[in-house]
Design a protein that fits this description.
homodimer; Beta-Lactamase; six-stranded antiparallel β-sheet; three-stranded antiparallel β-sheet; DNA-binding
DNA sequence: AAACAGCGGTTCAAATAGTGAACCAAATGG
DNA sequence: CCATTTGGTTCACTATTTGAACCGCTGTTT
């Protein structure tokens, strides 16, 4: 791997649940020598992509990332353009709706509008969702190029519940359904008792950049409701795609 | 410079005003060979820190940055903790107040609360402010270690208006005033007709992490007003510092 | 209190990864 | 339509990266 790749993979070790990590730990997890890890960290720190807590000497992500992210968001305002549509979809369906962007082989939850109902599905911003096992993921795969799909399906897939689809055939069927109808459907594929409808959001090149998903308690959804949610999801996703590509 | 440093300096070429740049341009500005620049861009793209617009083939900052920035912001919630204090300070003074974080030798504007008055100072989120020439910058320097200050003052300093302080002696005096009183004052140092009061916000190690600044039309400020604003700015900055370090 | 284990950090010869001049083909633009 | 510039590629050369062994320090265990 390139030196730059190694440096970035150090950054990717930090998560919401573990935002500060020590040198030895960092090196171990990245599969690097301590000396190498340190040199890379110093290079990153010189540009404020990494900061070191002076007391504990542990490392954390730096302010430069906030700065760069702001520049990007100003130019590619995925969340800003999508948020109103997501909100409206949530009001229309009465369910929790969330927006995800594809990043590094998975979907990253960027925005959530919670249902007003007492019995609702809760989703956290920042949560990372797998491509299989979530309605969002299936919708994303259905909109992706074939080579991307087959590359993803080759790897062994983790089962999150007893209902998670992990077999290539089952997944192919779900993807085919999503490709045909524009939306995907998943019952308890990622969490027990949760039903989801997903739809892909396309960028200016026609490739999917992310997804939106309507998440309901399973008890509230039958085939008729799912169909209606599917139509609404497709409409919302198309509207966001249009805004992204400057068509609206 | 390290390879990683070169890669990051490529990222830093993107700005709010120029969010997409072509390969040759990028290489030229970074002082790198085209082949080198491309290899670095590819390494960054593999981790989604860079994206390439397929149509124009130009490069832009990638979604991975948004993801990493979110992780950082969740852990080091500078803006989240400071925003309410900034808002209150704006209401109290009736003027525009903005929050900046130090990054890569300058102050990055992260949050703004605009004055309700018709005649007000407008500041953009994302704007990069120099350390000299702004009240924020002077306050930041006054709270920094001496070696940081002298390193900064060694370089030639740009004048933004006829009133910008660029001489080492003038700046030293302004810094001494800020160090003694806790706040800094600047008249038209960065923009004509704008008066600013700045105060530094300190992190858990006692080093400044950023600043807040009250910006008023020059016509509305005399010495008495400036003094009152200074006291208010210091109080607000201390409150944010305390929240950051978990003392409140 | 002594021995230990782990930490962050450093060194330098050996090895690997990075570099850039010269080269395309394709897209601009005068 | 020709000149220029673009994004992209190649490969011999070389400078950067690498990691085992080494500090000194801190906190824990015996």
């Amino acid at each position: 791997m390139s030196t730059v790749g190694k440096a970035v993979s150090l950054l990717e070790l930090f998560t919401l649940h573990e935002p500060e990590i020590g040198l030895s730990d960092l090196a171990r997890r990245a599969g690097l020598d301590k000396a190498t890890a340190r040199r890379l960290l110093m290079a990153l720190a010189a540009h404020r992509l990494i900061e070191q807590e002076p007391r504990s000497r542990r490392y954390r992500l730096g302010a430069g990332l906030s700065r760069l992210a702001r520049i990007r968001d100003a130019h590619f305002p995925f969340v800003r353009l999508a948020a109103p549509v997501i909100r409206e979809l949530s009001l229309e369906t009465g369910e929790t709706v969330h927006l995800s962007e594809f990043s590094a082989g998975a979907l990253l939850t960027l925005h959530v509008e919670l249902s007003a109902k007492a019995n609702r599905v809760n989703v956290d911003v920042g949560q990372v969702l797998p491509l299989h096992g979530t309605a969002s993921g299936i919708a994303f795969l259905a909109a992706s190029r074939l080579e991307v799909v087959s590359a993803y399906l080759e790897k062994p897939l983790q089962a999150f519940t007893a209902h998670t689809m992990t077999g290539p055939d089952t997944l192919a069927k779900a993807i085919a359904f999503a490709a045909a109808s524009g939306y995907s459907r998943s019952s308890e594929g990622y969490e027990e008792g949760v039903h989801s409808i997903g739809a892909a959001i396309l960028g200016s090149d026609g490739q999917p950049v992310g997804t939106l998903s309507i998440a309901s308690p399973l008890s509230r959804v039958d085939d008729a409701v799912a169909g209606a949610q599917g139509q609404a999801a497709v409409r919302a996703a198309r509207m966001i795609s249009a805004r992204l590509t400057g068509e609206a």
